[in-house]
Amino acid sequence: MKIFKYLIPAIIFAVACQSEPTKTAAVAETAESLDQGKTLVLPWSVQFNESTHAMEINREPAADMTNLQPADIVDAINIKYPEIKLSLVKLESNTAFVNISDATYLTQRSGSDGARAYLAEATYSLTELEGIESVDFSFKEGDHARPGVYTRSKFQF
Is 138 helix (H, G, I), strand (E, B) or coil? Predict the structure, then answer.
């Protein structure tokens, strides 16, 4: 019986001291990007205006676009939205081609407004880069979002 007196607290202590790998990876990714002098703040974000009850897209003053590449923007999107893993496929002409291999959260669980906010932030942020005018999203269509080519004009808030 005395062994349980010491064994149970030891097990609880061991379990409590384990870190969550996704948070550790995100912190390491953030630190690496900051070491390179790059920001991981998206240049655009969508907010819900309580007084007008409308969604608004706003420029983020903390975002520094200096030396950023499309992959950096994709990294920032993935850090902000860890449930939706966006990957950059290619850049062709004036279009960024991106893919979401598992879009279940975007298309089924985020609601229409959440999906629209995500697509708007990703589109506005990627088209903030010189030479990119549209974003071609590839993913399995669901109730709240459709794949396709998105431009800033597609979002009327």
Answer: strand
The residues pairing with 116 across neighbouring beta strands, listed in sequence order, are: none
Instruction: Show the beta-strand stretches assigned E in 1-154.
Output: 44-49, 54-59, 86-92, 95-100, 134-138, 148-150
> Which residue type sits at 4?
F
Which tokens sit at 132? 């990119």
Cα(11)–Cα(106) distance, integer angstroms: 38
**DSSP result, 12-28:** HHHHHTPPPHHHHHHHH
Euclidean distance between CA atoms 100 and 141, whole angstroms: 11
CA distances (Å), origin 152, targets 5, 122, 124, 155: 63, 10, 6, 6
81 DSSP assignment? -
pTM: 0.74
Give me 15's structure tokens. 């379990």
Q: pLDDT tens digit string along 22-46?
A: 333 444 444 444 445 555 789 999 9
